[in-house]
Task: structure prediction
Amino acid sequence: MLRILIAEDEEPIANLIKMNLRRAGYDCVWAAEGERAADLMDSEHFDLVLLDIMLPGIDGYELMEYAGTLELPVIFLTALGSTENKVKGLKMGADDYLTKPFEIVELLARVEAVLRRYHKTEATLEVFDVIIDTASRSVTRKGEEIPLTMKEFDLLLLLARNRNIALYRETIYETVWGGEYMGQSRTVDLHIQRLKKKLGWDREISAVYKVGYRLELE
Amino acid sequence: MKFADKLFLATTALLTVIFTAFGMWMLSSNFSRLLEREVERGNSESRMFRFLFETGYQSTEEFGQDYALKRTLDSITDSVERDGSHCFVLKEDGSWLYGEGYMDERALPEAAGELVVAVEDEKSCGYVIRKTDSGFFLLSVSAMQADSRIYLGICRELTDIYEIRQELLAQYRMALAFLLLLGGICIYVLSRYITRPISSLGKTAKRIADGDFGLRSGNRSTDEIGLLARDFDRMADRLVEQMEEKALEAKQKEDFTSAFAHELKTPLTSIIGYADMMNTMKMSEEERAEATYYIFSQGKRLESLSHKLMDLVSMDKNPIAFKPVQTKRLEENIRATVRPVWEEKKIHGKVEMDKGIIYGDEELLLSLFYNLLDNARKATDKGEKGFVLLKGTALRDGGYEVKVVDNGRGIPKEEISRITEAFYMVDKSRSRREGGAGIGMALCQKIIKLHGGTLQIDSRPGEGTVMKVVFPQKDNQKN
Result:
C-alpha cells in the first residue's frame, strides 16, 4: 500500500484529505507541525508528501527543501494561490501545486498523476472480476479480453480509479475527452451505456441524481 | 565645463588683464616722463644755440653773411655740442650751412626739411622725433630771430631710452608670465579646493540616485555649501524614511491580503470538501456526522471572522459618541463577564479600577478591556499559577491609565510591533486552537486610537506581558 504524509495544520482539512485518500486505497499519516513532518520524513517511508506552506514551526518551503534531499515527491496544498507562490513552489522542485479550496476528484487525480510519474501506481487494477491493465491498455475477464474503444477504456479507468465517488458529467467529459464541457451530456451518457453493456455492469455503474455516475463497489 | 575650471579661467583672465593694464600704464608713464625730459633738454639746447648764435652773429656782420655765419658757428658749436647733442643749420632754400655730414649719415635731412617748413610760419620753435635705420632722434629747430631764413637746430639721439623701454617691456613680459603661472597654479588649486564639497555632494547625489540609499555627504562645515549638504542629507533621510514607510505599508498590505485569503480559504476548503463528499460519496453514518460537524464549525468560524472584520471596518465609518463613562460601572461589567471564564480555566484574576471617568463609548471600551483580558488569559501557560490582572488608575493630569498584566508566555521582542496588525499571530497553531483569527489586537488598537489613547506593550518571554493603555483627559481628545 502506498503511504502518503499529510503536513497540514488545520485539522478539518487534514481529516478531509485523510478520509478521501484512505477511500482511494492509500495509507495516510498526518503531521500538524513542521517539526513533526520533518521527523516523520526522516524516520518512516513515504511515497508522497502533501505539503501546506503556512505551517507552524518549520514552514512548507523549508520542508520542501528537506523532502528534496530525500527525493520524496511533493504536492503543495495551500491557500496561497498567487502565481508568484506557485512558481516559487514549483521551482523548488515540487511536483504539483494545488490551491485551496480544491475538489476532491482533482486532489485524487493529481496525487495519482504524480505517483504515476514516479511509477508507483500499480499497473493493473482489479474491479470485481475484471482486470484492467494500464500498461497494455487491455481489459480481461477470466483471461478473456473484452474489446473496448480508446474512449471507453479511459472512461472505465476513470470510474475504476474513483470507486464509490460520484463523478460529475463535467469532470468525466473534461477528463476523457478534454476541452470545455458545454452540455454535451449525450456523449457521456452514450459511452456509459455502451460500457455497461460490454462489461455487463448494469447495476454496478449507477446514475447519481443531478451529478453523474458512480462505480459502486460494495 | 566644470565649475572649478570656469572659476579658474575667469580669475586667470581677470588677473591677466589687470596685470597687463597696470604694467603698461607704469611703463608708458615712466617712458613718457623720460621722453619729455629729453625733449625739454633738446628744446632748451636749441634755444641756447639760437641765443649764442644770435649774439655772436650780430657782432661779425661786416665780413659778409656766409663768412659771418661760419665764424659764428665755429665759435659756438663746441660749447653747444656736448652730451651727444649735435647742431645743424639750414637756410630757407634747404642748403646746409652746418652739420650736413652728421645728418646725412643718419638719413635725417628730409625730416629736418619738413620740420623747417612746419616751423616757418611761426616764430617759435618746433621739434620732431624720427626713427631711422640708425635709431631714434629728436630734432629741435628754431628760426633765427633776426633773419628768419636761417634755421638753427639740435639733433639728439634717443635710441637709448627706446632701448631701455624695450628692455623693460621684455623684462615685464617675463615677470608677467611668471606671475600668471604662479597665480594660475594657486587659483587652480584654490578653485578645486573650494568646489570640492560641491563635486563630492554631486557624487553622493549620483550614488544615492543609483540606489545606495544609506549614503550621506557628511559635510559638517558652516558655509553655504555645508548648509546645502546638510539640507541635502536631511532630504535623503526623509526620502529613505518615506520609502521605508511605503515599503512597510506595502508589505503589511500584502501580508494582510494573503492572511485574509488564508483565513477565508481555510474554512471554505473544509466546507466545500465535506459537502462535496456528502454529495458524491456513499458515507457511513459516522462519517456523515463528522462531515456535518466540520461544515458547521467551519461555517461558524467564517461567521466570526466576518463579524470581526465588519467591526473593524464599521468603526472607521461610524463616528463614536463620546460620553463620560464611570470606571466603576466598567469594573462591574468586566468582572461579571470574565469571572465565569476564569473559574472554568482555573486561573487567578483580578479587576480593579480607581474611581474615575473615561470619555468614550462604553460598548467599545468594554470590548477593548474584554479583548485584552481574553488575550492575557490565553497567554497564561502556568496552569493553576496563572494570573491575570486589570488595574485602572486615575492620572493626575486628568487622564486614565489601564494596565492589563499576565504572567503568561510573553511576546518575543521582535513580534511586539507587529501584533496589532490584522491577522498577525505570534503562535499560529495555538491561536487557532483557541479560536483566534488574529484580529483581536488590531481591533483593540483601533478602539484605543479612536479614543485618542496610546498603547504600550512591555513583555518578557516566559515571564509575562504588561499592556498599558492611557486615555487622555477630555480636552486633549481629537473629536
